[in-house]
Amino acid sequence: MEPSTREKLLEVAEARFAQRGFAGVGMREVALAAGLGKSSLFHHFPSKAELYVAVLERVIARIEAHLLPALARPGDATAQIERTVDALIDALAEHPSTARLLLRSLVEDDAFAAGEPPELAAVEARLAALVGRFTALLGAPDAVQTLIGATVYHFASGEFGEAVLGGPLFSAEAVARRKREVKALLLHGLAAPASAPKENAPS
Amino acid sequence: MEPSTREKLLEVAEARFAQRGFAGVGMREVALAAGLGKSSLFHHFPSKAELYVAVLERVIARIEAHLLPALARPGDATAQIERTVDALIDALAEHPSTARLLLRSLVEDDAFAAGEPPELAAVEARLAALVGRFTALLGAPDAVQTLIGATVYHFASGEFGEAVLGGPLFSAEAVARRKREVKALLLHGLAAPASAPKENAPS
DNA sequence: GTCTATACTACGATAGAC
DNA sequence: GTCTATCGTAGTATAGAC
């Protein structure tokens, strides 16, 4: 079964937005790349902002599909952290646009000059909910920032990241290596020395 | 001594580019914010791309001013890592636009549709040189990616990062905390377990 | 649901007066 | 060195035929 026109438009728009950001992509470009005329795109999405939010909804849904099951399963803190980090990295590695769009949405929050679409608030709320789960799991908010940097930034880093690594970002071997690295980081590096003294740290 | 017109333009452009990216900022907007007409801006910078690169040059120079002295001083690996991480974080914390522009330059490498200005290659070379120094210092390329995520992403994360932390990113206390966190991470977390074991390309 | 045609605005960039 | 005026293009968005 071939994808619907709407799905194809979302696919094309996601790749473009991930590569050049909200302001850097034109509706004409998206429509033509999907094999439509510019005006037909406005039939499916009433504005550029709504197209962008629809793309973001797909991204957050993809991440939730990996993370929510991992977060739901019981276990001690260590096992949950390992499972959740694996799930997060699987989610980011699944599609090369995911991490980029996520990173952009964190940094380009004011991309809409005026009148954000109402669905955007819902996407942000779902994202904040996931962050809350991570904060509860890791204890320290600083560790959440580090985790995001070690995962979302990493898989969003594109050509630059590949130049740093001297190899691909999304190969199975590179993804497995990043899982090991991040888990070792959180379990043996962060937990003890840097975060505990100031606030209450769960043990 | 008041700043020259060129300096004021660079200041204004830096803030705007950091907030909304290359494509999201218009020349008219920059000029008016600096108290000039749009055409006067083209007298100082012959194109938007050259304005952007001039902004990036300031950013990389600022980072080099902190990092190169720290890298030049002798000492054992641990002391050098501590010194260099402190210098990197000082550089990123000095000006709230620095990390954002740096992160954008990593992710928006293809923002120029056609004909990049030649100065851009020089900026990228200086950035790559710094990355090379870090790779030599830390040993593992993966650790460099993690370090960038833990520092550049962190100070670029803006409102989202402040929501995660539940407090400011750039306060003296938050900056000092990040220094402790990143150093503990690299010295006690990463170095031993995750990077060394074996393997390069399984092919 | 897709098309052509169009409205209106903003874009980057240039020319030339002062 | 700054200005006004203008060029050509592309931006989002709408109207209406088919």
Structure, described:
- The structure is a homodimer of 203-residue chains.
- Chain A has a domain at 55-190: Tetracycline Repressor, domain 2.
- Helices cover 73% and strands 0% of the residues of chain A.
- Chain A has ten helices and no strands.
- With 203 residues, chain A is an all-alpha fold.
- At the A-B interface, helix 6, helix 7, helix 8, helix 9 and helix 10 of A face helix 6, helix 7, helix 8, helix 9 and helix 10 of B.
- The first copy, chain A, binds a DNA duplex (18 and 18 nucleotides) through residues 5, 26-28, 36-40, 42-44, 46-48.
Cα-to-Cα separation, first versus last residue of chain A: 51 Å
| Integer average pLDDT of chain A | 91
Query: What oligomeric arrangement do these chains adopt?
Result: homodimer
**What profile does the largest beta sheet of chain A have?**
none
Give the largest chain-chain interface (CB within 8 Å): A-B, 56 and 56 residues
What is the chain-wise order of helices and strands of chain A? Answer: HHHHHHHHHH
Task: Flag low-confidence runs of chain A.
Answer: 191-203
What is CATH's topology name of the domain at 55-190 in chain A?
Tetracycline Repressor, domain 2
Gyration radius from CA atoms of chain A, angstroms: 19 Å
Helix fraction of chain A, binned, reads: over 70%
Number of discrete helical segments of chain A:
10
Structural class given helices, strands, pairing of chain A?
mainly alpha
CATH architecture of the domain at 55-190 in chain A: Orthogonal Bundle
| Secondary structure: number of strands of chain A | 0
Portion in beta strands of chain A: under 5%
